[in-house]
């Protein structure tokens, strides 16, 4: 849709709207955090389900990938739907599905049950990365778009890291480990429902034209911003997805431990790095943010190869930290590019487009690495994965540098 048609509608969307207090901008990010806690809460528990149900590393990555299937399917709908009918009508059903996922996880006794739970989780996550992150921007208003991009991005990665840490601690210290975790998460999601119900959001302003289910995109003229964001964000989130899906297996082999607290702590540290690096880099030029993110992902994959080839636990930790930094910077750079250029009535769809570009490789490559590891061994499988992803990260960084004149400088 050409920008010349969308800009006037945006201007009419809230002519006399009073700006919400800054605390509401922070609170608006809570539903994103709560759903992303769920997204990775199962990570330390897979070893328990593998023991009780019995399935291979390849099957494990397939279970993980159904989360991506649900997420991608959700992104094909939720971005456009949210822009047309509003954020709340999309977020509330998504939170309902997240609650259903908690119930399914807590009662799972088979691989199909785990797949259904991951599918529901993916759909809920697809809604919050499109409608939920756009809601943060809507509450913030035009004058606080930089803050909105930062908080929405940090809410995502902080929740993604908090989930496995809380799950690891609860499952090691309390009875019924695969149940207790999801009881706690149910309570967190209930508070998120209350926040969404009270959230001060403007009415949607998007014209109802075009297909309701489609591959999400951006308005004409914003394709460059989307491309740069995906080029760096996609390798970064693929790296963190690998650590989440096969990191516990690598830890078990390198450290000889199956501690769920250790696995959860590694994931939390990875995403805490992704959160902290965004606050540290928030005032840097976008080009610097993106190129640094690409470099971090590339170095992280070099560290991963070193870890598996040399059986080095410190190198594995370095790989996780660098992967987190790569995802965080790529995500912040991509979201800030879109927030600065895309009109409000297409923002949820633009966020969905960025995440489709990121999550597709994040689903496909770790699954391929899982089955490859079953066939040729975890060491060689992880080496191949790390080499491929290092190459993609370098290509993304080179693209940003080569086209640096087309990346807006100021945040």
Structure, described:
The longest helix is centred in the middle third of the chain and has 33 residues, at 223-255. Helix 6 (88-107) runs antiparallel to helix 7 (111-140), helix 7 packs antiparallel against helix 14 (347-376) and helix 14 (347-376) packs antiparallel against helix 15 (378-402). The model is unreliable at 1-16 (pLDDT under 50). This protein is mainly alpha-helical and 411 residues long. It is 81% helix and 0% strand. It contains 15 helices and no strands. It is globular, with a radius of gyration of 20 Å. Keywords: Cell membrane, Membrane, Transmembrane, Transmembrane helix, Transport. It is found in: Cell membrane.
CATH architecture: Up-down Bundle
Helix and strand composition category: mainly alpha
Anisotropy-based shape: globular
User: Regions with pLDDT < 50 over 5+ consecutive residues?
Assistant: 1-16
The CA-CA distance between the termini, in Å, is: 25 Å
Mean pLDDT: 84
Protein name: MFS family permease
Domain Major facilitator superfamily (MFS) profile: 1-411
Organism: Streptomyces griseochromogenes
Transmembrane segments: 21-42, 62-81, 90-109, 115-136, 148-170, 176-197, 230-255, 261-281, 288-309, 315-338, 350-372, 384-403
